[in-house]
Amino acid sequence: MHVTIFHNPACSNSRTALALLRERGIEPEIVEYLKTPPSAERLAGLLAAMGITPRELLRSKEPQYAELGLDDPKWTDVQLIAQMVSHPVLMNRPIVETPHGTRLCRPGERVLDLIGVVQP
C-alpha cells in the first residue's frame, strides 16, 4: 500500500501518525512539507481529496496567520492556498494520503481509519 505523509517532525500528532503506520509495517513516503512544500496544484488536490476548504487547513495559532490577516474573509481559496505554499508553517498536519482516502490526521490516531484498522 502506497502511503504519503505530509510530516512535521516537531508535531506530536504527526509523529504519532508516522509511528502508528510504521508499527503496522507501513513505511510511508515522508514529505517534510516545511522543507519541501507542495505546489499549489498538489495542495488543491489534497484539499479536494479531504473534502475540506483551505481555511479549514490553516493553523490559526501561527503568528504568521495574524501577521498576514488571514482571518479576513476577503481571502479567496486560491489566495489561501498560495499563502500556505509560501508559508508552509500555516498548514495543519499531518496530512496522510492512502489508497483508502486522504485525511488530516488530528489526532494522529485518525490514521488508523485510513489503513483499515478498527479502533477500540
From TrEMBL:
Keyword Transcription regulation: no
Pfam families, alphabetized: ArsC
EC identifiers of the protein: 1.20.4.1
Gene Ontology biological process terms, A to Z: response to arsenic-containing substance
Top-level taxon in the UniProt lineage: Bacteria
Keyword annotations: Arsenical resistance, Oxidoreductase
Reactions accelerated catalytically: [glutaredoxin]-dithiol + arsenate + glutathione + H(+) = glutathionyl-S-S-[glutaredoxin] + arsenite + H2O
Record NCBIfam families: arsC
Protein name, entry field: Arsenate reductase
Originating organism: Pseudorhodoferax soli
